[in-house]
Design goal:
71% of the residues lie in helices and 0% in strands. The chain has 327 residues and is mainly alpha-helical.
């Protein structure tokens, strides 16, 4: 009710900001907040429909966006290194703040500001918990889950740290501190208007993929809560109404292959549609009433409070129930 919709709302807002920036350009005055939120809501509706059609369509979409995301991060990193070495860029000389100024120069020593910054960083790397909600979709979770954790976490951390270093190589510190769309500023500095457009669309695609993955896992979480009786039983159902799935009968081989590529084995709409609709409704509320800074702080405080008590509970169980079977 709090964590997943709140996280999805943050991603959707970033998606909206970058999509609008792609439309109006890097040098234009910032658009209305409500335009950004309108685009964010459109993105949320799109991924909800995508994941309602079939599980396979949702996961295949996630795979495609993940691949594009890593290609983009690699491109940003390489571009930043080349610009740092050559000093060349589309708009004059590249910034040399990374050489002439300390990266931590002028750092605020206020503890509350440090906490806000820490929460933003914790949220950025918080996707690690999503895998726990979809272990039921794994064929061999005891084998595959550790593999996923041990490969994905280091890869994601390394990729994003390198991309952030690339931003420092190209952009002045003042731009990085003041802009909500740093990637657009990076693309505009290096490649001009076409670069800002490409980076804006790339980040939008990345956010769409992250929103898709969050919607996928959130739906399963609400569905499980409905099945266990923590939420009304309607959220623990699969499909639409009394129909659990819809099958399409095709005659041509091409159509049949396309259906097999995106449909589940039992057909279309064999998904927790009511659960994902609830998640979308809650996320929409957060999008309308919140903004990036307030939502990241809210999510950080709420999320890591739950994480703390979860870990504390595990320690207590280790002491009180040492003989319990554990994975």
């Amino acid at each position: 009710m709090v964590l997943k919709p709140g996280s999805a709302a943050i991603i959707a807002i970033i998606f909206g900001e970058y999509m609008v920036r792609a439309a109006i350009g890097a040098d234009a005055v910032d658009a209305s907040t409500w335009i950004n939120k309108g685009v964010a809501l459109a993105g949320l509706v799109s991924v909800t429909l995508l994941n309602s059609v079939s599980t396979k369509l949702g996961t295949r979409s996630a795979d495609i966006f993940m691949f594009l995301k890593f290609v983009a991060l690699l491109g940003v990193t390489i571009t930043g290194i080349v610009v740092a070495v050559t000093g060349l860029s589309f708009k004059g000389k590249a910034s040399d703040d990374w050489k002439t100024k300390g990266w931590f120069e002028g750092t605020n020593t206020n503890v509350s500001n440090w906490a806000v910054a820490l929460y933003a960083g914790l949220w950025a790397f918080d996707g690690w918990d999503n895998v726990n909600y979809v272990t039921g979709e794994f064929k061999n979770p005891s084998r595959d889950l550790p593999r996923v954790i041990h490969t994905s976490l280091p890869l994601v951390i390394l990729s994003y740290i390198l991309a952030n270093i690339a931003y420092f190589f190209v952009l002045p510190l003042s731009v990085i501190e003041s802009s909500n769309t740093v990637a657009v500023a990076f693309g505009h500095k290096v490649f001009g208007p076409i670069g800002s457009l490409i980076l804006a669309l790339t980040v939008s695609g990345s956010c769409f993929g992250a929103l898709n993955a969050t919607t996928f896992t959130s739906g399963r979480l609400v569905y499980a809560a409905g099945k266990e009786g923590y939420l009304p039983a309607v959220f623990g159902k699969i499909g639409i109404g009394n129909r659990s799935a819809v099958k399409l009968h095709t005659r041509s081989k091409t159509s049949s292959r396309m259906v097999q590529f995106v449909a589940d084995d039992v057909g279309f709409f064999y998904t927790p549609i009511a659960a994902m609709a609830l998640n979308a409704a809650l996320t929409s509320i957060y999008i309308v009433v919140g903004d990036f800074k307030t939502l990241t702080t809210f999510y950080g405080v709420a999320g890591y409070t739950f994480y703390f008590f979860t870990v504390l509970g595990l320690i207590v169980l280790r002491v009180k129930e040492p003989m319990l079977e554990r994975p």
